[in-house]
């Protein structure tokens, strides 16, 4: 294991992997050798994946990086080697160390890799109340090394991958296990290790996220849209763009930017030339598929009222909290009381309040509390909304008291 760099005024630049840049694994034979090497290694394994967010429609992995003591670093091309179940089997009994695991786990599962146990360095940093929990920041603050982040947003679907990009990717796992060890000791010292282990276990067992309802409502600038007819334009253009982007495996924003969708919705053009005259549609990219965009506009313009989307998205939870004072003042009072208690508990334990209890869980409890407010009934509601036991133990009694006091 590399020793922590000595304290210094300036961090030490981490410019190259300590064992040199490994070749990219692109064949079944090389993959088998890599899996065997990883299996023979010792200790935790650092894992990372690079996606082409902003360039591709899919969220698949375009590079997988691993490092384990005794095996060194590995860079695997999951396009050339799309099934990494052999690597998964080699690491079946190994703790995986990831940074912001929830971002990488879905694309790793797609290629046959799923941890049985993990340590998330970003989440550990949050539980320790570090104000900034990016990988480079934690590595610099805790290990004394400086990671260059200049290639974070490049198109990782590029082939062949340039050597500077590969060096950047390899360095992302270079000291990840060392970072894990420092954070784990800090969690022990703070009495928070058991909390972290519960959080990590929840990441491993979390079900696949459900598809978002009405994803078109997240169109940037949609606040400019004022009525249901305009919402219909946004929806039809968004769906048309999504079909094109999916078919071409191109990021939707590169097919048609959000501001072009909103511009058409607000203008409600009456003809194809009128649509083409809108500034966002004068670009070469937008004109390439102008016929598709006009078809979507025509469809939206002819929808009957019953076919237009509602102003608000369907949701199985409480309404937006800003409407509570008018709709249900008692619920608004419970929410305020609950939030105040959570802030106090989070401050006492040096935790971000959103890690103490998910904001949505607090809203659901305040909007529809159990008929009898006790620590047991509140704990049941919290667990039913996904709260971990450490969160329940810290908050249930205090929330029951606060909500009871507000109701009296």
TrEMBL record:
<dbReference type="InterPro" id="IPR051086">
    <property type="entry name" value="RNase_D-like"/>
</dbReference>
<dbReference type="Pfam" id="PF01612">
    <property type="entry name" value="DNA_pol_A_exo1"/>
</dbReference>
<dbReference type="Pfam" id="PF00570">
    <property type="entry name" value="HRDC"/>
</dbReference>
<dbReference type="InterPro" id="IPR002562">
    <property type="entry name" value="3'-5'_exonuclease_dom"/>
</dbReference>
<dbReference type="InterPro" id="IPR002121">
    <property type="entry name" value="HRDC_dom"/>
</dbReference>
<dbReference type="InterPro" id="IPR036397">
    <property type="entry name" value="RNaseH_sf"/>
</dbReference>
<feature type="region of interest" description="Disordered">
    <location>
        <begin position="1"/>
        <end position="20"/>
    </location>
</feature>
<dbReference type="InterPro" id="IPR041605">
    <property type="entry name" value="Exo_C"/>
</dbReference>
<dbReference type="InterPro" id="IPR010997">
    <property type="entry name" value="HRDC-like_sf"/>
</dbReference>
<protein>
    <submittedName>
        <fullName>HRDC domain-containing protein</fullName>
    </submittedName>
</protein>
<feature type="domain" description="HRDC">
    <location>
        <begin position="227"/>
        <end position="307"/>
    </location>
</feature>
<dbReference type="InterPro" id="IPR012337">
    <property type="entry name" value="RNaseH-like_sf"/>
</dbReference>
<dbReference type="InterPro" id="IPR044876">
    <property type="entry name" value="HRDC_dom_sf"/>
</dbReference>
<dbReference type="Pfam" id="PF18305">
    <property type="entry name" value="DNA_pol_A_exoN"/>
</dbReference>
């Amino acid at each position: 294991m590399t020793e922590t760099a000595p304290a210094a005024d300036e961090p030490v630049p981490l410019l190259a992997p300590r064992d040199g840049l490994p070749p990219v694994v692109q064949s079944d034979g090389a993959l088998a050798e890599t899996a065997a090497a990883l299996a023979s290694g010792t200790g935790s394994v650092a894992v990372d994946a690079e996606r082409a967010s902003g360039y591709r429609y899919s969220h698949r992995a375009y590079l997988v990086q691993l490092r384990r003591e005794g095996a060194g670093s590995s860079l695997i091309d999951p396009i050339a080697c799309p099934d990494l179940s052999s690597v998964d089997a080699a690491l079946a009994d190994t703790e995986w160390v990831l940074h912001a695991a929830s971002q990488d786990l879905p694309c790793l599962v797609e290629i046959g890799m799923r941890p049985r146990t993990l340590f998330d360095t970003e989440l550990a940093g949050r539980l320790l109340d570090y104000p900034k929990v990016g990988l480079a920041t934690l590595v610099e603050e805790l290990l004394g090394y400086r990671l260059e982040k200049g290639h974070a947003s490049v198109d990782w679907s590029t082939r062949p991958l340039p050597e500077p990009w590969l060096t950047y990717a390899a360095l992302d796992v270079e000291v990840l296990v060392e970072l894990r060890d420092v954070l784990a000791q800090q969690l022990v010292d703070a009495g928070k290790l058991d909390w972290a282990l519960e959080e990590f276990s929840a990441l491993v067992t979390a079900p696949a996220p459900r598809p978002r309802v009405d994803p078109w409502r997240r169109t940037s600038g949609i606040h400019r849209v004022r009525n249901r007819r305009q919402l219909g334009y946004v929806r039809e253009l968004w769906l048309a763009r999504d079909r094109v982007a999916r078919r071409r495996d191109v990021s939707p924003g590169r097919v048609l930017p959000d501001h072009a969708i909103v511009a058409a919705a607000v203008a409600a053009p009456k003809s194809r030339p009128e649509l083409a005259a809108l500034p966002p549609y004068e670009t070469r990219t937008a004109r390439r598929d102008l016929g598709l965009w006009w078809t979507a506009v025509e469809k939206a313009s002819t929808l009957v009222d019953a076919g237009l989307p509602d102003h608000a998205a369907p949701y199985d939870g409480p309404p937006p909290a800003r409407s509570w004072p008018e709709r249900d003042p008692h619920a608004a009072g419970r929410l305020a009381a609950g939030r105040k208690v959570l802030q106090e508990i989070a401050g006492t334990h040096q935790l971000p309040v959103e890690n103490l209890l998910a904001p949505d869980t607090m809203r659901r409890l305040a909007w529809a509390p159990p008929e009898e407010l006790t620590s047991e009934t509140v704990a049941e509601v919290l667990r039913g909304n996904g709260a971990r036991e450490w969160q329940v133990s810290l908050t249930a009694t205090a929330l029951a008291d606060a909500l009871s006091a507000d109701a009296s």
